[in-house]
Amino acid sequence: MNPxxxxxxxxxxxxxxxxxxxxxxxxxxxLGAWGALQLNAAIPDVNLAATLFVLALVVFVxxxxxxxxxxxxxxxxxxxxxxxxxxxxxxxxxxxHMTWRAVKPDVxxxxxxELTGGGRRLRFEARMDTGGRFQQNLDALRDRIAAHVAARxxxxxxxxxxxxxxxxxxxGVRIQSDGIAYRPSGFLGAGEEQLVPWxxxxxxxxxxxxxxxSASGGREELFSMACEEPDFYPGLVVFxxxxxxxxx
Length: 248
Known about the structure:
A hairpin with a 2-residue loop joins strand 2 and strand 3 (77-82). The protein folds into three domains: 3-16 and 68-156, PH-domain like; 19-65; 162-247, PH-domain like, CATH 2.30.29. The relative contact order is 0.11. It is elongated. The protein is an alpha+beta fold. The model has no long low-confidence stretch (mean pLDDT 85). It contains six helices and 17 strands. The strands form five sheets. A four-stranded antiparallel sheet has the order 1-2-3-4, covered by helices on one side. A four-stranded antiparallel sheet has the order 8-9-10-13. Strands 16-15-14-17 form a four-stranded mixed sheet, covered by helices on one side.
């Protein structure tokens, strides 16, 4: 079955030069340097230098002309087309882990993402203007994939298998069937693990790339987590669904 048909409507497409072609840029620089040496030699060899410069130009431009890696994100899955290797499909429901990191340089936003599942690890990068249509589509795609991973996480929790939300450093947040566990930060490092039952009303806020969770009515936050942590967005979906959590 054709994955592009089985996966539904095409939502987003990313084209990148394959890494193998990037290896050609070093030979291009070396050829250009060799040509410069021929021109600056005691007895310049103009013909050889011209030949080397032409070769350097061809090798440098080749990565932009040769086939590259293509990612096509559909409604139900993503396909990765690798030059000379074929097309590799990955259903969103088979994605086990996702990391989605947004970096804001001087202009725009750069997203670094990684999806793991089906025996594959898929990485991609996207640069865009802040608030543009492309960013809106990419955010919608992130939420779509996160919802699929969250469904897998919920099934795991219902089977009494705790889910580690984010890295195990810092607060070491763990989502489980009876509540959410974390280690409060202190002057001397993380303290003893605390368990907050799902019946406890909580509030959360996302500011400047960080999530802060507090008890409703309380001034002190229970724990905080960077949005770039592993499985942050699927964990947020599960956290909001299982607990009495209100965003402020």
